[in-house]
Specification:
Distance between the termini of chain B: 58 Å
Mean pLDDT of chain A: 79
Distance between the termini of chain A: 33 Å
Low-confidence stretches of chain A: none
Largest interface: A-B, 30 and 48 residues
Oligomer: heterodimer
Number of strands of chain A: 0
Shape of chain B: globular
Structural class of chain A: mainly alpha
Helix content of chain A: over 70%
Strand content of chain B: under 5%
Strand content of chain A: under 5%
Number of domains of chain B: 1
Order of helices and strands of chain B: HHHHHHHHHHHHHHHHH
Radius of gyration of chain B: 21 Å
Number of strands of chain B: 0
Largest sheet of chain A: none
């Protein structure tokens, strides 16, 4: 399992920027009140 | 030919690769949500029957369900690509968590954490190196275990693997050991924290400093309290920020011994290894501190962070396979376990001392 984890994790680590972009895009939508309130 | 061909397959592959992720992400969501439902059902049952059942957080249920699947039937191949996205949700969750911190608090607590991180790093690297030599582990496996236990588990090991040109086998083992030890720590830390009557702030800092992988550190904090999870993330993120420096140090060491390549541009190396999601976290903290969001918007963003962490916690269990330990024998695991216990005790002492001095 860990053997496949290395290449997969390496690929996803390079997606740090995507995680930030996704978060900021959703934040902008919430700030603009374009999505309903998120409940927990 | 190669210049033209390289970017294209990625674009063509993108919808297919995105589809490959769906089953695993759905599994993360199903396990995380099942954990939440179990917690709510037990709470409702104990309330309806006036019982005093212990409140076991959804975090623990999600991790335990994942652990049972991973260590019995195993994660089916179809789900693996999506399950591996758990780190992605963790990072998105940390960015969202930025809205729950005032930037002044981040800087103040980050400063305190940085002092503690410096001590923790030096001692854990020294300790792992001594223990590894004592148990006659391979030198590069020692480096990987030292990096994994001193900074941030999987990310650090992967960053270091390329830089010090370590074997796949050593890196796989170090990752498996760090994940297994992290999973064990998250069961014990909250018990010790409650026994010592630690405050949410102090416990969060301890979890952030003492538990290796960011996902497990966050889960350990969340098992204690919501506030503890916040502080665990802050301390762990400070630790993650040092990743480039430590990996660079090891890369220079191995290059000087002729078994890794020289690094010419050190500034570029440090930037490459720097976890960029920290910048997103700081940005949202700054924006929230300026009063840009309403109370409802802040609540929505904080809840998004919780949902992202829910997927992460399910992934923690699914990615931890204790059977991996058998492949390299018991010695590296003993080194890891003894080292981790010593680091946990050291960081506990550090946090208690800091609590008394700085009133964290």
């Amino acid at each position: 399992m860990a053997h496949t984890a290395i290449p997969t994790a390496r690929r996803w680590l390079s997606l740090d920027g995507w995680a930030v972009l996704l978060s900021l895009a959703l934040t902008a939508l919430i700030w603009a009140d374009l999505v309903p309130p998120v409940r927990w | 030919m190669a210049d033209i061909a390289l970017p294209r397959p990625q674009r063509i592959d993108f919808p297919r690769r995105a589809l490959e992720l769906v089953p695993g992400i759905a599994l993360l969501a199903a396990i995380g949500y099942a954990g939440k439902l179990i917690e709510q059902s037990i709470a409702a049952y104990s309330k309806a029957h006036a019982l005093h059942l212990p409140n076991i957080e959804y975090v623990l249920w999600a991790i335990v369900i994942g652990l049972v699947i991973a260590n019995t039937v195993g994660v089916p191949r179809l789900f693996k690509p999506g399950v591996a996205t758990y780190e992605f949700w963790l990072k998105a969750g940390i960015v969202f968590l930025g809205v729950r911190f005032l930037i002044g608090d981040v800087l103040r607590l980050g400063g305190v954490s940085l002092v503690l991180v410096a001590v923790e790093l030096s001692v854990s690297i020294a300790l792992m190196t001594v223990l590894g030599r004592l148990f006659r582990l391979k030198p590069k496996l020692i480096s990987l275990l030292a990096i994994g236990s001193s900074i941030c588990g999987v990310s650090a090991i992967i960053a270091a693997k390329g830089a010090i040109e370590a074997d796949d086998e050593d890196a796989s083992y170090a990752i498996a050991a760090i994940l297994a030890l992290g999973a064990i720590a998250l069961f014990f830390f909250p018990l010790i924290g409650h026994a010592l009557g630690m405050s949410d702030h102090a416990f969060g800092l301890w979890a952030g400093l003492g538990v290796d992988n960011t996902a497990e550190a966050t889960a350990t904090g969340a098992l204690y309290s919501d506030t503890a999870a916040k502080y665990a993330v802050l301390a762990k993120t400070t630790r993650n920020a040092t990743i480039g420096f430590v990996v660079l140090g090891y890369a220079i060491y191995w290059a000087s011994r002729g078994s890794a390549q020289q690094i010419d541009n050190k500034a570029q190396f440090l930037w490459q290894k720097f976890p960029k999601f920290i910048l997103g976290f700081l940005f949202l903290s700054l924006v929230a501190s300026l009063g840009v969001f309403t109370k409802e918007q802040t609540a929505s963003l904080a809840n998004l962070s919780r949902w992202a962490f829910l997927l992460t916690f399910a992934g923690v269990g699914l990615m931890t396979d204790f059977r991996e330990m058998r492949k390299q024998g018991v010695r590296p695991f003993i080194v890891g376990a003894v080292g981790e216990m010593a680091i946990a005790a050291l960081t506990l002492g550090l946090v208690m001392a800091a609590d008394a001095v700085f009133t964290i």
